[in-house]
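User: Can you predict the 3D structure for this chain?
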Amino acid sequence: MRFIGIDPGSVICGYGVIEKTGTSSFILIEYGVIEAKKEFESLPLRLSMIYTKIQEVIARTLPDELSLEATFYAKNAQSLIKLSHARGVAMLAGTLKGLPVIEYSAKEVKRSVTGNGNASKEQVQYMVKSILQIDETHKFFDATDALAVALCHGLKRSTPKQSAKSWKQFTTENPHRIKKQ
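Assistant: Here is the predicted structure, written as structure tokens:
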């Protein structure tokens, strides 16, 4: 399965597309940033550009699902409003392409990628770089959060359902996950 992660912003919008190749192994398909402020001062025009570019990335990379980090705060009300607009545009771009849209909290993303929900940005960058075997570029740093969200979603999608009440029930429901010796 392919997953696109989006780190929406009205000035810089990061994206990353990965493909799950095993239970917890992934390959990098593409990552980058949409630098809307370089092109347009007007918020509506920046949002239009973000929408168009995300649609292009989706058409080019053909992901199965889209994930984003849930907003929990911003520096001020104006920043929160602009961020919310950018998130809405990213959600719309995915939804109109028929992709399920899933959100994760920042702590959940950090915990999935590093094992620590309070990990620093540097720790997340290091783990994303290691997992996806990426050589650093300036665009990598702006796309790290988007790649981390995609990894979080990919890892969540590879985790078996937690509904099993016993080992016997789990093995019955998940025979493909049992390694035969």
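The mean pLDDT is 87. Strands lie at 2-7, 12-20, 26-35, 65-69, 101-104.
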